[in-house]
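call fold(seq) -> tokens
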Amino acid sequence: MNKELDNIGLERPESPDFGSATDKLASIDDLIRATYTSNPNFTTIDEFAKSIGKPRWWVSRRAGELGLARPRLASAPWTKAETDIVDRLGDAGIAGIAAGLKAAGFSRSLGAVAMEMKKQMLSRTPRNAWSARTLAEFMGVNSKTVARWIDAEGLPAEREGNAWRVQRVAFKAWLACHRTRFDLRKVDQEWFLALLLDD
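ret:
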């Protein structure tokens, strides 16, 4: 590669002269130690890796082998206030809960919210309202069928941007009057039973 760079007139990056392979690794290890003791950030490690002619992942791996890489810290335990927000906003979905937590002054990632929802056994899908697409999946029909139910067969729904939103109470009432519009063999059985039994 260096010949190719010389042939087209480009300067090759300078790499430090470390001597023999063993000396080279020991010198690189010393440089890694010096870099990691200064509490580096991603950019610092990236620039250091370029300066020694190694990829960043190699430097990070070597730092781990030397016992220098900082372990990932476990996130702080959820407070009662945070779990109450998750429970209260359970129908808002992961992004809605994360936004609610942020508005209340808490900082949790979407992944952390999803894990807490799973821990609390909350469904990722809203319990009180569904999009037409989600409702179609639960009912085992095409989303165009749900759109037809809304347009032509009186299924109450509200427009949210480009999507329809169907409330659970309105859907249960519509189901009672339109029992022949769907095939019970195709519906999501657990969801359907929870829908019928939940008040």
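The longest helix spans residues 21-37.
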